[in-house]
């Protein structure tokens, strides 16, 4: 049996679901960022698979995936800088203990 | 046949460590498991004949983002708290929502009749991507470089110790 | 069944590369380092074990093998064991793309990947993870600090390494190492087309290739934690840094990874800037090995000439010196090539 588009789409859907589970259920801010990275990886697999099987003439999928990798790096850097700043001031990185701005 | 075997190995290499990332209580184990997951995704990219994206994936994801995450975990002492509860009380709801979304996405993606095309990718991946970036997608290129600059300066300013 | 044969070929190539590097590279390299450093310091180096001390490294390896394998009490055993393995695997995988020369009608290279140089830089960035995990899992504050310092040094010098590699890539138009060696053939006296002399372009290309070569060697020395950049493993500062707690074979594996990586960097410099296997007279592989060992000699020479840089001096050199220089080099190369 050949490896078709459906195989990659199922893998990326499962990876997306795992990342979403990580975001919804974890207490540590860094663990939530790890879930976000998994979701971004899932979308990259999707884009590159579509480029290969549906539109192989141009490389729009690859370009889009590269831009997403770049922006994921930026967002991880800024998010982790925020986590460091929060840790320095509030001594915790658990998102349910950061309640300073709640009424 | 060989391609299917490799695909299954790579899919397992991607999904099983990802499951460890989102469920384990030890944060450094979770960050360590991200790396085989990223390497599995790299393998899937190579299988999809996207070599340049695969190289960039290792270089940036496994070589930079994983290092960044490990640094922050080690600096915020999240790795030694084995007795600290790492999962909040929304576990069942999260499982239902994430599982439901994964199943819905999977079913929808598999059932849609995508217009398959039998063409082949350009021979030199790198040259084609470079040309695409500088002709068709130059706006995205310039804007993402601006975003890189802004996030570089922003991360430095935010994480700096107050003097 | 072709896929099965391909996997078999790849496994055999991996075993061949590993044995070649473990035996020749690490053992000969360690012996050469001790002898050459001895001569530079007006002493003799190892002389007792075997003729002229040639079996010294064998004796050292046997000694390391029979040492007790200690895992610290509260260390995370899985991470503690994985870290040296990752360092060795990443260091050895960097050898996949280095071509040795023409033999039996084809170029001897493990795999001529068409994104070869990108793969090489990616393997260099995987070692950082091994260093961080090794430092953290030892459950020892000196190891942790050494791991942080070493990791920040290595990631700071990845950028000058990549920028220095950009210059040959732009001149050759390909990321494949065999392609870059390909444009360096022929020329005046058989060496005229080496990239360090300007390649197949006129002589004024040396204004970018010579600084790129120097920058590459500097960044390579910093990437493999060699003096003058070896603050993370300086005995007087951090008690051997991130591998303080590693004994026996695991310590040997870390050292093997570092030596393999430093030889790979020297090999890549020979391939990119010194013409690979091209040269007048001698067969290609002999030229490549000569150039490789000449560059390794240069690396050892620098080790015993310069004092150790402090961490902030190290990082300043990278971010304030080499990165802007690298950008300027890439810009000037692009302008000169058009």
Plain-language structure description:
The complex is a heterotrimer of chains A (103), B (163) and C (338). Chain A has 103 residues and is mainly α. Chain A has helices at 5-25, 29-53, 60-90. Chain A is elongated, with a radius of gyration of 17 Å. The model of chain A has no long low-confidence stretch (mean pLDDT 90). Chain B folds into 2 domains: 1-82, NADH-ubiquinone/plastoquinone oxidoreductase chain 6, subunit NuoJ (Four Helix Bundle (Hemerythrin (Met), subunit A)), CATH 1.20.120.1200; 125-163. Chain B has helices at residues 2-23, 27-47, 51-75, 91-111, 125-135, 138-159. In chain B, helix 1 runs antiparallel to helix 2 and helix 2 (27-47) packs antiparallel against helix 3 (51-75). The mean pLDDT of chain C is 82. In chain C, a hairpin with a 2-residue loop joins strand 1 (102-103) and strand 2 (106-107). The longest helix of chain C has 39 residues, at 2-40. Chain C folds into 2 domains: 1-66; 70-337, no CATH class. In chain C, helix 2 (56-65) crosses helix 9, helix 3 (77-93) runs antiparallel to helix 4 (116-137) and helix 7 runs antiparallel to helix 9. Chain C is built from 11 helices and 2 strands; from the N terminus they run H-H-H-E-E-H-H-H-H-H-H-H-H. The chains are: A mainly alpha (103), B mainly alpha (163), C mainly alpha (338). Chains B and C meet through helix 1, helix 2 and helix 3 of B and helix 1, helix 3, helix 4 and helix 5 of C.
